[in-house]
Amino acid sequence: MATATASVEAATPKPITLAKPEGQWAIVLRRFRKHRLAIVSLMFIIVVFIASLITPLIAPFPRDAVNPVMRFSPPMTVDTETGKLHVLGTDHVGRDTFTRLLYAARITLSVAVIVATLSTFIGMTVGALAGYYRGIIDAILMRILEFMSAIPTFPILLILASVLNQDPKLLPFPDFLVNFVSAIMLIDPQKESRSVLVVIFVITLFGWTGAARLMRGMVLSVRERDFIESARSLGANNFRIIARHVVPNAFPPLIVAYTLALADGLTAEVALSFLGLGITDPTPTWGNMLNFSTQFMLTHPWAPLIPGIPVVLCSLAFNFIGDGLRDALDPRLKM
Question: For residue 125, which of 5, 59, 211, 236 has the smallest C-alpha distance?
């Protein structure tokens, strides 16, 4: 009897368990993990961001503490007054380079994030409106975009930054913006915030065109699909269609564009500050630190490397992350 029961159980087919299908973002994450350079770059950027956020806790010296006796001390020099170690040496007036590098990272990366966010949002809005409405709205917005793209960007950035920094009345900023920038970057709202806001303004002014062109192309390919027509037939207004259906379906390429905008914002800020037309001393940024260090590079060759290496590494990291996201979000690529 037991044998017969066992035979029946063996003959009974076992239920087939189907594997749960992967979601879209799970697939993207799995594909992104295969891009080793992107993963390493992401980890590096996370470490830099965390270090910049906790700068007041880990900085060994006050940001602007000066010790003229210690001018241009090489790395790993002990301070004569406090006995603390200058891990990366000191600058031309005896300020601790490691401390200023941390504060500079906070300011430079904050500028890059704000510029990339504003540029991508403006470009996304302009591109979505132009691609969805087409007609006269598309024509007007695209003529503005073409005009902005035709302007030689960097010379205009230099001129605008120089003029706006010299005369505050030309572009007054509201107090809440000044206080916001001061709070996140740990700078003086009265003396230092304006130059930061000017840099953010002039870079954002010309930084949205790429995202707008990308968004317009994506919206044009999405707006005539069946689910958009279904939303129209159900009575959805244009704003709801754009916000709930058009933009989310055109969003993946914008994620890639955002990471590249971070690299562009970082290099633009560094370039302006390096040329003395952006954020100026005593506010530390990687650009103005590089500017001062290059003036003494013949006698102190290590000085330009200290701010220069983070600029190169962060720019490369943002680009590698963008490459990884592009490969992960593109369904035509097999990884």
Answer: 211
pLDDT at 134 (0 to 100): 83
Distance of CA 92 to the CA centre of its chain: 30
Task: Give the torsion sign (CA, 7, 8, 9, 10).
Answer: positive
Question: What's 243's DSSP letter?
Answer: I
Read off the pTM.
0.86
Token pair 């790993």 is at which residue?
76
Q: What is the mean pLDDT of the chain?
A: 85
User: Across-strand partners of 78?
Assistant: 85
pLDDT at 157: 87
What DSSP state is assigned to residue 18? P
Tell me the three state secondary structure of residue 77. Answer: strand
| Contact indicator for 254, 215 with CB cutoff of 8 Å | yes
SS3 20: coil
Pick the range with the lowest mean pLDDT from 27-41, 67-81, 138-152, 219-233: 219-233
Under a CB-based contact definition with an 8 Å cutoff, are residues 307 and 279 in contact? Answer: no
Q: Give yes or no for a contact between 246 and 222, defined as CB atoms under 8 angstroms apart.
A: yes
| Segment 62-116, tens digit of pLDDT | 988 888 888 888 888 888 888 888 899 898 888 999 999 999 999 999 999 999 9
Question: To 10 degrees, the CA torsion angle through 162, 117, 102, 179?
Answer: 70
Q: Which positions ≥6 away from 15 have C-beta within 8 Å?
A: none
CA distance linking residue 310 with residue 58, whole number of Å: 18
- How far apart are the C-alpha atoms of 325 and 251, rounded to whole Å? 12
